Amino acid sequence: MSKMKKILVRQVEMSDAEQLLNVIPTIDRETEFMIRSRDEFSLSLDQEQKFIASKMNNPKDLFLIALFGDKIVGSLVFSGSTLKKYSHFGEFGMGILKDYWGMGIGTMLLEELIVWAKQNEIHKINLKVVESNERAIRLYEKFQFVYEGTIENGVLINDTYSRLLIMGRTI
């Protein structure tokens, strides 16, 4: 049986908090493209549980995890707004353990996000991606995300500033 058949995507549960405390720092160490630098993630179990609760309790937020068996191998967090003028859109970020790259997990997470967005009156999804993250950009383009702008010197990677691309998709 292939790994792909064993991947399950679902919304986060409070019981996932402890495992996420181990998975997220690993993802951060495996690539320079994450929002945090290596070893910068330092939430306590209580803080992670509060973060999960905040996502579960906000109807405009979504926290998805990808599981291989019982192991969390990726996640996607979408943050929306409950303010009326901004309640139609939000921004997401995601990460996947390197051993599971190329298995379609990013595709599965994005498919679930888009279905959820349609059901929850989200009409616009945005993201920021490092310009040199070609794998991610190809994935986003596959889902009809389009280039909307740049943030010059938006991220510092290995003592060098890099451009962030702003991409978006209307639902």
Automatic annotation (TrEMBL):
Question: Per its UniProt record, what Gene3D superfamilies does this chain match?
Answer: 3.40.630.30
What domain of life?
A: Bacteria
Q: Where is the N-acetyltransferase domain?
A: 7-171
Keyword vocabulary terms for this entry: Transferase
Q: Is the keyword Transferase assigned to this protein?
A: yes
Gene Ontology terms for molecular function: acyltransferase activity, transferring groups other than amino-acyl groups
> Know the name of this protein?
Ribosomal-protein-alanine N-acetyltransferase
Species the sequence originates in: Tepidibacter thalassicus DSM 15285
